[in-house]
Amino acid sequence: MTQGDLVMGVIFLTQTTAGILGNFTLLCFYSYILLTGQKVRPTDPILNHLVFANNLVVLSRGIPQTMAGFGWKNFLDDSGCKVVLYFFRVARGVSLNDTCFLSGFQVTKLCTQNSWWKISTRFPKCFGICCSLFWILQLLLNVYVPLNVTGPRYKQNVSLHMHYRYCSIVPPQPLGTLLHVVLFFSIDVICLVFMIWASVSVVLVLHRHKERVRHIYNAFSSRRPDHESRATRTILTLVSILVSFYCLSAICTLCVGLSRKPDLWLMDISVFLGTGFSILSPFVLISQDTRVTQGFYFSTKKPSS
Predict the structure, then answer these.
(1) What pLDDT is attached to residue 204?
(2) 161, pLDDT greater than 60
(3) Rounded to whole angstroms, how far apart are CA atoms 184 and 205?
(4) How high is the pLDDT of residue 176?
(5) What is the CB-side half-sphere exposure of residue 127 using CA atoms within 13 A?
(6) What is the mean pLDDT of the chain?
(7) Under 8 Å between Cβ of 67 and 84
(8) Does residue 245 form part of some domain?
(9) DSSP string of the chain?
(10) pLDDT tens digit string along 103-157?
(11) In this structure, are residues 239 and 195 in contact, taking their beta carbons and an 8 Å threshold?
(12) Domain of 287?
């Protein structure tokens, strides 16, 4: 194990630990909110699925990469590689779909404030059902992953197709590559374009709203924009982080895929960027959700004697 491998192992260990702690904390919080029905918001089912997907991304990607960075060899067999990378792709797709759904929810809410309460109060369970459908969609779209992934083969040199530190990829067939691009990347691109459009629409709506109420200084109008701007700021931050990390990760992944013998540092950067959104998003949600911060405050507050 070289010094560079040790540094990458420490980096991925820190990243994975932070991601697991952040996502697991939010997963417990949103699960408790949904089970007890206390202070439930319409976006809580979406956020619960998003946090669970991000947690699965960190577990399926960060832990194997950390072990490989510290010099562990052949810790996954052929079946292990297929399962780990399959669930990583599924969770990554669900995370993208949920963030897209969340941005669409926000822009619809802001553009139809007069009638939105009917949807959010009468059909709150529809959001959870839609998120469940995202899991089914991604499970079906990524069925090709186990077919193209193999574990370490002790008697063969797989370095030419070693696109991961711990697993290898079978050279794709032209028809399989075409189907992969059409089914997988087209959906991702549609989601990214929609999120960018929704984010721009939200910014324009809030700007026009601010211009209209600039001359109003009563107490009611000063509180309502604060709540709306906090929720909108959270979603815009999540979308910005997701789009940035996704684009950079896609570029690195493309470079790795086109290279016959990719460098280890390029594979490590691709993994680091691929899990970046799942690592940062729980801390964005924790910092912006007042229910979480209030819960931490009351849990750490000493009882008065």
Answers:
(1) 82
(2) no
(3) 32
(4) 60
(5) 27
(6) 79
(7) no
(8) yes
(9) --HHHHHHHHHHHHHHHHHHHHHHHHHHHHHHHHHHTSS--TTHHHHHHHHHHHHHHIIIIIHHHHHHHTT--S-S-HHHHHHHHHHHHHHHHHHHHHHHHHHHHHHHHHHTTTTHHHHHHH-THHHHHHHHHHHHHHHHHTTTHHHHEE---TTS--GGG--SSS-EEPPPPHHHHHHHIIIIIHHHHHHHHHHHHHHHHHHHHHHHHHHHTTT---HHHHHHHHHHHHHHHHHHHHHHHHHHHHHHHHHHHHHHHH-SS--HHHHHHHHHHHTHHHHHHHHHHHHH-HHHHHHHHHHHSPPP-
(10) 888 887 777 655 554 555 555 567 888 899 999 999 998 888 888 788 765 444 4
(11) yes
(12) 3-292
Q: How many CA atoms lie within 13 A of 217 on its CB side?
A: 1
Is 103 inside a domain boundary? yes
Scanning the structure block, which residue is given the tokens 């969770």? 91
Per-residue model confidence as pLDDT tens digits over 28-57: 999 988 888 787 888 889 999 999 999 999
- What total of structural domains would you count in the chain? 1
Strand-strand pairing, 149-150 and 168-169: antiparallel
Three-class SS string for 232-261?
HHHHHHHHHHHHHHHHHHHHHHHHHHHCCC
Q: Which tokens sit at 231?
A: 């929720």
Please choose, from the candidates 20, 21, 16, 22, the residue with its C-alpha nearest in 3D space to the C-alpha of residue 68: 16
CATH number (domain holding residue 201): 1.20.1070.10
pTM of the model: 0.85
Is position 302 within any domain? no
Using left for φ > 0, alpha for ψ between -120 and 50, and beta otherwise, residue 89 falls in alpha
Q: Note whether residue 71 is domain-resident.
A: yes
pLDDT per position as a tens digit, 212-240: 666 554 444 444 445 566 777 888 889 99
Query: What residue type is assigned to position 223 of the chain?
Result: R
The mean per-residue pLDDT over the stretch 171-189 comes to 69
With a cut of 90, say whether residue 253 has pLDDT above it. no
* Contact status, residue 272 vs residue 237, Cβ threshold 8 Å: no
